[in-house]
Structures are given as C-alpha cells and as structure tokens.
Fold this protein.
Amino acid sequence: MRKKFIAGNWKMNLNTADAVTLATGLKNALGTADIDVAICPTMVQLTSVINVVNGSPIGVGAQNVYFENNGAFTGETSIAMLKDIACDYVIIGHSERRHVLGECNETINKKIKAALAGDVKPIFCIGELLEEREAAQTDAVLKTQITKGLKDISAEDMANITIAYEPVWAIGTGKVASPEQAQAAHAFTRETIKALYNDTVAANVRIQYGGSVKPDNAATLLSQPDVDGALVGGASLKVEDFMGIINNA
Ligand code: 13P
C-alpha cells in the first residue's frame, strides 16, 4: 500500500509573517492521520517555516535547487545548503520552471541526481501542455520527461523520489483534470517506470496529481487507484482549504 502524500507548493507567495502563520495553523490543525504532508515555501522563508513545524509530522520542501554544491553561481542555492537547514524535500522540474524559466530535461536530471546524492527527497514534476494534449501527445511527452529526467538513476534511489503529474493546462486555471484523465496519465507513468525499472519500483513509487486541486475535487481524484497524493498550489495557501484536501485523502 502506498501512503498518500499531500504537498503544498506555495510558489512565490506570502511574506515571512504570513508563511509562519500558515505553517502554525497547519501544524495545529493536522491530526494524526496516516498520511505524509509537506509544505514548500520560498527559499527566503524555508528556515522560518522549518522552525515552526520542527517536531511535527509536517515535512518542508524547497521549490527549486541548483545541481552544483557551491561556487560562482549567483542567485542559486545548493542541495548541501538545503540539507544544512534540515529541508526534507525539493520540487524539481515544476512546469513553471520548465516553461517560464526555461529549464530542460537534462538540467532537471542533474538536479534530481544532486538531490539524491545530498539526501533531500525530490518531487519530480512532469506534465503536458494543452496543445500537446490536444495533439494526442500526452503519453509521448510524459515518456520523454520521465526517461530523460530519471536518466542513470538507480532502482534503489527511486524509493526516495515522488513523481508529480501536473498537466500544465490544469495549473492555476481552475480546469482540473477529470479523475479519468488523471488516472490514465498516472497509470501510463507507472507503466513507464515499470519498463525503465521493474514491477517493485513501479508498485512503490508515489505519483501525486497537481493542477487545480481543491477540497471539493480532492476525494474523487485521490480515490483513483494510481493517484497517491496531490501537489497543491493555490489551495495550499489557506489552512481550511489545505486541510480540506488532506481530510479528503
Ligand atoms: P494550482 O493548485 O494552483 O493549480 O497549482 C498546482 C501546482 O502547480 C502545484 O505545484
């Protein structure tokens, strides 16, 4: 049985006071449900949020990282730095990084390898654009992203990776994928992992769905057999909404 994993991607939102308030509210609201929960604030707020949730079951993730350990890379942050502040997860290859900030599969692969080597768990994002879905290219796009993103990553390391399927057309649009669309993409992703690795890796890897997840659509999405959790954007910025999703899982 794969344990459900709900992560909140706060994106470039909230000041530090609001981030601390939100993290505190979640810490107080979270019961003892048998579920993994993480929140991902900006780099600036990571330490403050980690200090708040320290000792609680809530994990904390960064939204990005650079693959080199240190050096002349102005503006970047390394895995060693994330590990140093006890950051648990890092989102890698989010669609906004791919499509707004120009990140390619090869860079994403280097970042995943750096995260695994530095003992910070990657949340590896994949997903097709609307035009790719309309041209019936969804499976091909996902296969390329998975194959290139996971190049030279061992079956053993796969135990520390979460995959997040986020159709780009569903992100921040209110147009959530139907449970059938999500299930189909998740099943295809799991099949692809099986072909690259083996049955056990495919059966164990957790695949989150992301894209306009809200409390009222979470239950049907999360009841699909291959949907193992959610990566939540907008609805992770309010305690009631994020808790509504967690409670529906
Ligand atoms: P929304 O939930 O706001 O659509 O964002 C999804 C997302 O990009 C999470 O990483």
Observations:
- Residues 9, 94, 166, 171-172, 210-213, 231-235 surround 1,3-dihydroxyacetonephosphate (CB under 6 Å).
- The CA atoms of residues 64 and 91 lie 6 Å apart.
- The longest helix spans residues 179-196.
- The chain has a mean pLDDT of 97.
